[in-house]
Each structure stands twice: as C-alpha cells, then as structure tokens.
Amino acid sequence: MTVPEPLLRLRDLRVDVGERHVLKSISLDVPAGALLVLMGANGSGKSTLGLTLAGHPRYRVVGGQATLAGQDLLAMSAEARARAGFFLSFQAPPEIPGVKNNLFIRTALNAVRAARDEPPLDAFDFLGDARDEAGRLGLPEAMLGRPVNDGFSGGERKRNELLQLALLRPRLAMLDEIDSGMDVDGTRAIVRLVQALRAQGTAFIVVSHYLQLIESLAPDAVLRLDQGCIAETGGLALAADIARTGFARSAAEPQEA
Ligand SMILES: Nc1ncnc2c1ncn2[C@@H]1O[C@H](COP(=O)(O)OP(=O)(O)OP(=O)(O)O)[C@@H](O)[C@H]1O
Ligand SMILES: [Mg+2]
Predict the structure, then answer these.
(1) For residue range 106-135, what is the model confidence (pLDDT) as tens digits?
(2) Total domain count for the chain?
(3) Is the CB–ligand 1 distance for residue 58 below 6 Å?
C-alpha cells in the first residue's frame, strides 16, 4: 500500500527574521482536507510560519523543505503559491488605500481561476457572488466598494478575510487568529465557512487561542509550537489542557514532579 503524499509537507523548516532564529525546526504533514489547530504562546512563531509559507520576503528560510502537492513551495513566488492554492488570512489585515475591495478580490479570484483552467468572472457575475457571500458573513455590502480594509473595524477586517477565503476556495488555508476581534455571530460564521469548505476538500491550519472555537472546528490534530519547534501533538485534550493550565505548564512539570 502506498501512503499518499500529504498536501503540505514541511521538513526541518528553519526561518530567520531580522537577527532572530524564530523557527528552529518545523516538520509537519497536512493531509488533503485535514484540519490542524496550531497553538503556542505569544511570540512562539505561529504568524512567522504563516507568513513564511505565503512567501513574505522578510521571513528568510535558512534551511529545510516545504512542498505543496509535491511542488517545491520555497522555490515559488508569493503569487505562484496563491495560484497553487495556498491562502493566508492575516492576523492583522493591512489597509490598501486606493485599491477597491471588489476589484482587489476579483483580480485575485480570476488569477486563481486561470490557474484552475476556469474562465474569468466579469464584474457583474463576481459582484453577485461577492454580495451573496458578504451577506452570509455579515459584512455590509458597502464594504465591497471601499478601498481594502480602509476604515474597517477589527471584526469587519476579519470578515473581509473570510470573504476572500470563501470566494477563492483554496486547497490549503491558514487562518491566523481569524477569531480575534470577532463577535459571537462572526465566530459562528467562521465555523460555518470552514465546515462548508472542508466538505469541498479544503485543508486548514487554524491558529487560535480560544478553546470554544477549537472545539467547534473538530480538528484532526492540535499542535503546540514552542521555541520554534512543534513541541506537542495531540487532540482536543491537548487544547483543553493548554486552556486549563497555560503554556508554561510543560516547562514547570519536570520541576514539580
Ligand atoms: N519583522 C520582524 N522583526 C523582528 N522580529 C520579528 C518580526 N516578526 C516576528 N518577529 C519575532 O518573531 C517572534 C515570533 O513572532 P510571531 O509573530 O510569529 O509570533 P506568534 O506566535 O504569531 O505570536 P502571537 O500569538 O502574539 O500572534 C517574536 O519574538 C517576534 O518578535
Ligand atoms: Mg501571531
């Protein structure tokens, strides 16, 4: 029996930011359609992992391998990674003054559609789909006509990330604290959208500090990042344990024993 190649495969990935070795050795498999939750103390490197996989130039890969569907992710430009089906929702989504949200998302979507051999959507068809999705996500329609995230509230920015996720339908999405700043309806919208996309085969890496969301997502695995390495892998019990005792517990345990 042959073991299928995971969708994302990281081996001994090492990343420097500025003068710091932030990721020391990350090895990780994400099977197609799986949902992994990534936990870790503030500053442990969760966002660094997402931005590195997305191809942010400030995050320097100094060793190791990363493949997406068997392709060398690290050899690809940020745009090529997006076309190959990787999507990152930012922990702090930036404003892009002067660029209209609907044109921004339609341009990204049509680039992804071209890579999938799908015909481009014209402005009319796109707007129909975007309005439907925005309605489902509780994002006011007016946000489509404004510059990207310009004057958006924290929760509206996160909903705008979800709108991009819903329309782009990536193969692998990394959601970096998508729930932070979201109200209760926003959190429900996250769970609904993740479930709908998973049913279509999208895999997820979800970064979150909140047990309630993590439990609602029914992850296949929960990982804890510590000092630039995956320190623990488990199931919901690991997330519950972290919520109860905090990230310092594993350092404290040997001294207490
Ligand atoms: N551009 C940068 N310049 C210098 N240091 C950076 C930069 N980006 C990240 N770092 C450092 O890398 C470490 C990891 O940061 P990262 O944002 O990946 O943590 P995180 O796990 O996402 O934390 P949080 O839970 O607070 O979002 C931190 O110590 C941070 O200060
Ligand atoms: Mg972060």
Answers:
(1) 999 999 999 999 999 999 999 999 999 999
(2) 1
(3) yes
